[in-house]
Amino acid sequence: MTLTKLPIATKASSQFLSQAIKSSNSSYKILYFNLHARAEVTRTLLAFSGAKWEEISIDWATQKEQTPFQCIPVLYETTADGTILQIGETEVIERYLAKKFNLLGQNEWEQLMIEQYHSSTLALQVMYRQNFLFSPPEKRVESATSFYNDIFKKFVTVHERYLEKNGSNGHYIGQHLSLADIKTTSFLDRMTFLNPEGADLPVSAEKTPNLWKVREAVNSHPNIVAWNTSQRHQELDNLTATKFKK
Hints:
It is built from ten helices and four strands. A hairpin with a 5-residue loop joins strand 3 (74-78) and strand 4. By secondary structure, it is an alpha+beta fold. The two termini are 28 Å apart. The radius of gyration is 18 Å and the shape is globular. The chain has two domains: 14-100, 3-Layer(aba) Sandwich (Glutaredoxin), CATH 3.40.30; 108-244, Glutathione S-transferase Yfyf (Class Pi), Chain A, domain 2. The chain has helices at 14-20, 40-49, 60-63, 90-100, 108-133, 140-165, 179-193, 209-219, 222-228, 231-244, and strands at 27-31, 52-56, 74-78, 84-88.
């Protein structure tokens, strides 16, 4: 973790900055709470890339006014020539990094499909938060079971079909890792981690074979294995459990 002072974004013309974002030798800083949550995919993308990155220590009361929309995460990118780019909003950050790290397919159609699956999983995450994550302790098993049997069941039916259409090979598109694979795996990992005792988890090699293959493909990538087994990831696990496991 770094100091709490935020980088100052470079002020320049849109033409200059549009060239700066093409940098292939950048370093990154991410500002977010000490939780997985809305920065989980961003951290995974950065870990996957092998790029140099670090986290900015959170002092939200001080930092809030300095962020683009007074919310986090915020990504700071420093290009090879020292230009600093400031990017807000979770989904924008995820898609931006995915494009930089070649995780949006091999053509415009594949990119469109990957973004479609990414958006579908994002909608599922929103419904998960609304229907389960902040439910009171005495209602958590009931809330989880209801979510699994209704909303998540519909998601599984649709996504299993698309994954089967792609050859049941552990990927949404082609034979390569994509943002869609990482987004869905992130959700499945967190849903599994936060599953309350007494609720029947609806994800397994038998129940959701194609989604399971996606999860295995993502979590077996060497850079992601290194991140998932790191001390920092374990710290985030513990802090996330403290906040959301009841």
